[in-house]
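Cross-check.
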Amino acid sequence: MQRTSVVDKISLNILSFSSFLEIGDASYFQAFSRALAVQRQKNIFYGSEGSFHYPVFSEPIPLPPIQEEIICQFENVKPIIKVNYINIIAVSASSLLQVGNCSHLQAETRIKHIRQLSASPSSPTGDFIVKLEQPENPL
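Predicted model, tokenized:
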């Protein structure tokens, strides 16, 4: 049995980066987002940066098989989903805010965080520092 979704009021400040607000049912939802987050100690930008060639963006995500038997039984006494008020600050990075039913959902976010500091490579943390140098192949 399908139900009707009714929402009196929604307060949502930010909906971004492959995210959705759905009121009602959806048979399939798929969202994919990738981001390269670079934080630098100095504001140096070369204009030819931003490659997604890091392994985090191409490695397969292992999904363990569901081996236990799942038995579900639902009884929807009233054919309506009623929500008075939803207050959300932000929905981001392949997320779904839904009042209703979704049969199949797949969401994936991949983010590579890079911190670039202007410390000497000979310092105790030098092995973990990416030096601030201009890329070899500028566009």
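The first strand starts at residue 4 and ends at 16. Strands lie at 4-16, 20-23, 26-40, 80-92, 96-99, 102-116. Passed to J.P. for a second look.
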